[in-house]
Amino acid sequence: MASLSFEFPDGNVKDFDEGVTTEDIAKSISISLAKKAVAGKIDGEMVDVDLPLQSGGKIEIVTKDSDDGLKVLRQTAAQLLKAALADQFTNIQFGESNTNDDGFFVDTDKRETQVSADELPQLEERMNKMVKDNVKIERKVLSLEDALKQVDGDPYQAKLVNKLAKDNKVVFYQIGDYLGLGEGAVMSSAKPLKAFKLLSVAGAYWEGKSSNPMLQRIFATAFYKKANLEDDLNRRQEAKERDHRVIGNKLDLFFVDPKVGAGLAYWMPNGATVRRVVERYIVDKELANGYEHVITPVLMNLNAYKTSGHWDHYRDDMFPPMDMGEGEELELRPMNCPSHIQIYKHHIRSYRELPIRIAELGMMHRYEKSGALSGLQRVREMTLNDGHTFLGVEQIQDEFKKVLHLMTEVYKDFDISNYHFRLSYRDPKNTEKYFDDDEMWNKSQSMLKGAMDDLGLDYVEAEGEAAFYGPKLDVQTYTAMGNEETLSTIQLDFMLPERFDLHYVGEDGQEHRPVMMHRGLVSTMERFIAYLIEVYKGAFPTWLAPHQVKIIPVSMDKHGDYAKEINEKLVQMGIRSSVDDRNEKMGYLIRDAQTNKTPYTLVVGDNEMNSQSVSVRKYSEQDSKDELFEDFAKEIKNDIANYSRGNE
Asked: The Aminoacyl-transfer RNA synthetases class-II family profile domain covers which part of the protein (predicted)?
């Protein structure tokens, strides 16, 4: 019998007889490892734990407590779900199934009505019975010809068979009467699958292309332990309660209607107020830090984006050019950089002016695929809090530190603390994506790294996450679902000044090339406000709330004039206040103010009118307190001035 040689992660090499399984190899190390083993990884490819191996290579033992081990469990669950679907629906067809950090999914298609959310409990019952009966999952290898016969009549599976075939062989798994295509390593029985949940259904285009048929995607998740599943379901419930799309609808902040434009947000008065407060805050903050605010058109000659490289690198994410005739083509801008470059180029610049800081709340348009659109987080029209600094090489590290300091000040005011830093570098092997200039990349990457080290800040380094024109510092935060996303960026750019032939006159009277620093403090207004909605659960701090005070008279006839009087005083102070004069019971009006997450509810009756006071109830508090109106006015002004962080 031939001998196979395997190299372990620690560098040790061992020989085993041909036909050995990953489970056998794990047993040779320890019984406890064999009990935890759920798959093998041979030269990076996952294989079933009991698969007889015919060739050696680099081996990893995949265990339950690893990310790959969880993937194996979820791939097993996906196979069981397909078996349950095939058992329940005789005419079911299957698209792709896959796993991710959030669970797994199976795409289905039926000739009549698609699988509904109401049918998920029945499917769970069928799967639970398989687990209880410890149904075996047997690996079958079919020839390509036999595999195509097996899936005859299912066009999606036929295409997947051809895609997954290796050496004219295709792996299938037998689960009871069901024989289905394998799309990854699985376990040999249903027994380990004790903690799973079918979550929801949604439409998904076949192969992710809108020109293809719409399938029904069943979302689910699975864990080895029930406690982990319960934690995950609790997390999902919390995320659902924080979903900015749900809250945005309840609080009448914004809406997106595909009938009038997918990915285009309509800001209602409440949402527009929140956005306006954020925009004014950002502009004032930038002006105080030496930025000059500009306004530039959303249309630009296409040649500018060809010069910048955006047309070559992001053409698929840009809207089609508009042919204006006579050779002129205009493009909806996907980035503000070329616009700010034109501002810089409009005058002859001197070294005495540097650094020149240009900022704008710049509207941009990107052609996001319809399946990727999501509330305010993924849209086709967005307004970026954008800034570009033109500076000399010797000014880079000082300017970088100033921008970073400005960012952390902004985070403090918005009470953002859960973030970390990521230095994003190019992938030197990816010459198609990244501007090809090794000297530029090495110099700029070392400068950013040096600045972070000088500041003594912790960071992670990520190859392949840079912009095509230069490295960047990304500030990473987390959404309500726990997904990581970029909140802010600082990017160093030697390329665009070269391409647009930018100059400044140096102290020596000669022309010199400036460096560009791109930075966004809080991403786009759309994404940032979606983030704030979810962080605050719609209960904005007083300084951000669309309605800061709601005044409720006990009787409109008796106390209405007093309510209007104090409301007028608050409005004159710049506070967003109004009188609720609806003919409803006071208890209902108070509950309604709480439901709409109004920071302060003031009730006024005889006592308050006679003593020039108000009965104050803060959002989410059960009790109210009596205060002189003047004292309340000071309290709310202090609340707003301190960004609702208490007394400072």
From this structure: 274-541
Whether the predicted pLDDT of 648 surpasses 60: no
Residue 462 to residue 498: CA distance in whole angstroms: 26
Determine if residue 503 is labeled as part of a ligand binding site. no
Give pTM, 2 decimals. Answer: 0.79
- The answer to whether the annotation marks 313 as part of a ligand binding site is no
Strand order in the sheet with 103-109: 93-100, 103-109, 214-223, 195-205
CA dihedral 241, 245, 251, 254 (to 10 degrees): 170
* Cis before 355 (ω within 30): yes
Tell me, what's the pLDDT at 211? 82
**Distances in whole angstroms, Cα of residue 262 to Cα of each of 248, 254, 265, 544:** 17, 14, 8, 27
Q: What is the pLDDT of residues 112-171, one digit of tens each?
A: 788 999 999 999 999 999 999 999 999 999 999 999 999 988 999 999 999 999 989 999
Q: Tokens for 580?
A: 């609720």
Give 447's pLDDT tier (boundaries 50, 70, 90).
confident
Report, as an integer, the average pLDDT of 256-270. 92
Tokens 């610049």 -> residue: 349
Q: Which two tokens stand for residue 525?
A: 């207004």
Contact residues for 140 (Cβ-Cβ < 8 A; gap 6+): 171, 172, 173, 174, 179
C-alpha angle 119-88-72 in degrees, rounded to nearest 5: 85
Evaluated on CA atoms 282, 287, 292, 297, the torsion sign reads: positive
Q: State pLDDT tens for residues 359-400.
A: 999 999 999 887 778 889 889 999 999 999 999 988 988 999
Which of 623, 632, 531 shows the shortest CA–CA distance to 573?
632
DSSP 8-state symbol, 364: E
Structure tokens at 618: 């803060």
Of 17, 35, 19, nearest to 27 by C-alpha is 35
Closest listed residue to residue 363, CA positions, set 524, 240, 501:
524
